Amino acid sequence: MRILIVHRELPFPADNGGKLRAAHVASYLASHHEVVFLSFATPAQMEYSQRPLNEFPQRGLFRHFECFPLPPSVALSRRIFSGVPSEVIDLRSDQMSAAIAAAIAQYQPQVLLTSEPGMTPYLEPYMQPHGGKILVLDYLMVQPLSLERLAAISRGFRRLLWKLRWKRSIAYHRHIAPRYDLCLVNSNEDYVDLQTHSPGWQRLEFFPNGLDLNEYPLELQTPQPQTLIYPGSITYLPNRDAVQYMIQAILPRIRQRLPDVKFLVTGAVPADGSAPQGEGVVYTGRVPDVRPVIAGAWACVVPLRSGAGGTRYKVLEAMALGTPIISTTIGAEGVDWTDGQNIIVRDAPDQFAQSTLAVLEDAALRHRLSQQGRQLIEQRYDWNVLGAKLTDLFTELVEKVSQAPGK
Questions:
Q1: pTM for the whole structure
Q2: What is the pLDDT of residues 102-122, one digit of tens each?
Q3: What Cα–Cα distance (Å) separates residue 203 from each residue in 86, 114, 177, 195, 200?
Q4: What CATH code would you report for 213-380?
């Protein structure tokens, strides 16, 4: 197949969950099909995109690869009074429009793929039937659900702002839904939210996140006693809320019985010193490779209370590395888990704390969660299996179009 991928952000290097999904999809498709890749990029990403192939080998997979500077944000007044989400306005670029037109003319792709609804205006001119292209949205993080959850945990004026953004987002999704031949989401919660609030999608499919298990060997690091980890930058609001919730409502209950428990938080930390603080809390900052840090903990805690639906890579990575997980229901979304077997899921802070203590104090429980978590990833979330399913979906669409009357 001939595929054009258009993204709002370069997913290489894949240093967070959203980038991992986009990187896996792009790399797999480019390894098996003829793929052209166009993306916006920050200054640092622009520099990375131009590195030699020995430092950025994925670039060599693509038929054509090109990045463009991310457009500057528009004035606040235009954001407030616009009838579309702010990212749609922010992403307007004549340079990107011209690059897409040139790529379509030269390479004649059959499928146009993006992971960002805000990129839809670039693809609409080429949609079926007149443009003849198959449009696919691999929706990494369903925004309406995220905004709704942020409103639910906010108060006062902030809650009103989140609700207003939610309404605007819903209206935009209703507009773009019929444009796409296929929309992929990575959790049942995402699927239900889109079906409920923007039911006009031509085809909506659940397609989970996954990992290349060759990159996640077991026994990567010796687990350190009484060490908990939350992999995720607190510069992302749902992560910040999760960490603050852990520090204020859960960790003190744990440390009453195990006062030496250490809670590691990876990822970027605000430079203004506003990171939530507490006894036993350690912010590692960005680490070159988060896998040894996850593997070196006795347990991974995921006390998320907000954020979009979707499979959390922090959960998949911990399972793949054999690190036991205690999570809220929201944190475990998108994974076909069995409570007490491959993960422990608790929402109330006292129950979350008690279950975390049980994992820290019971070696047999840690072993069971570790072993069965890894087995679940091997059986259902290995990207080599998922990639073949993705190709089947695209092939079905291409064949359907080629067999349509007049083709």
A1: 0.83
A2: 999 999 999 999 999 999 999
A3: 26, 15, 9, 10, 9
A4: 3.40.50.2000
